[in-house]
Design a protein that fits this description.
Elements (H helix, E strand, L loop, with lengths): L9 H20 L2 H19 L3 H11 L5 H23 L7 H7 E2 L3 H6 L7 E5 L5 H11 L4 E4 L5 H12 L4 E4 L3 H10 L3 E5 L10 E4 L2 E4 L3 H9 L3 E10 L2 E8 L9 H21 L17
Parallel strand pairs: 1-9, 2-5, 2-8, 3-4, 3-5
Antiparallel strand pairs: 6-7, 8-9
Helix pairs in contact: 2-4, 3-4, 5-7, 9-10, 10-11
Length: 301
Amino acid sequence: MHKKRKKKNPFADKLFCRFFMFAGILLRILSQSQAALLARFCGDMVYSLLKIRRNLVEENLSATFPEKSREEITRIARQVYRNLAENVFEVLRLPLLRTPEEAARLVDVDARAFQAKTREMNKGAVLISAHFGNWELLGMAFGLLVSPITVVVKRLKNREIDRQINRWRAMRGNRVVYKRQALREGLRTLRNGGVMSILADQSDPKGGFFMDFLGRRTSVFLGPAFLVLKTGVPVFVGISRKIGNGRYLVEYEEIDYSDLGTGKADVEELARRYTLALERYIRRYPEEWFWLHDRWKRTEG
């Protein structure tokens, strides 16, 4: 049986968007350190009092890290909420990020290896990332410091906020496309030497390909792998992680696929390779990932 979709309430969407924008104005008045302190407080409130998806987060962490004690799981879960609150506040402060110099004060990225495989060879690239660190800040900073990118996004239910965040995503030279346009626009962008940025850590609603991810079987999107093998561009896994004082370090690695062809099994193998690379980062820095997503809700059969 299909779940009944809730009817959209345009008035409620507009009202929430107005609140969202007003919160952004207030946060942009605060200093970075003041905003970070407020985010820590809000994250603790959501974790301890509102408990939004808290059981899901702790269950996901316990299933992924059975060797960790209850105290360790609780500590990581609390930090997940603090980091997510800080991410939201940083997104609301994105309009303050105007120049490469301002981006460099927040994000540390050494892009020489990336540029050697792309700009210097007149080639495009696929940049695989995840809901890890601050992925929105990563996209804007990468566009300012390295190369403008085309960001593949999922349309938000609140269309007012969706339009506003897309304006912020694109205000410094990046381009935004929705998932349903990603294949057509991706091929065009990559063949023209552009860079596609895709978050590849969520499950595929169609459930065509399953693999072990963080210890459990789940569906994985094949779209990024198909684009890479179809166009022959390099593919990198890149994440941003917190290093203190509101700063982020970008880490990335190229995924080798020189032994692969273009068949279905090759597409699946490349998807497996970059998904396992994402898994390594998540296991190393679990507090940075978006554990609130029900990542394992789709199973085989």
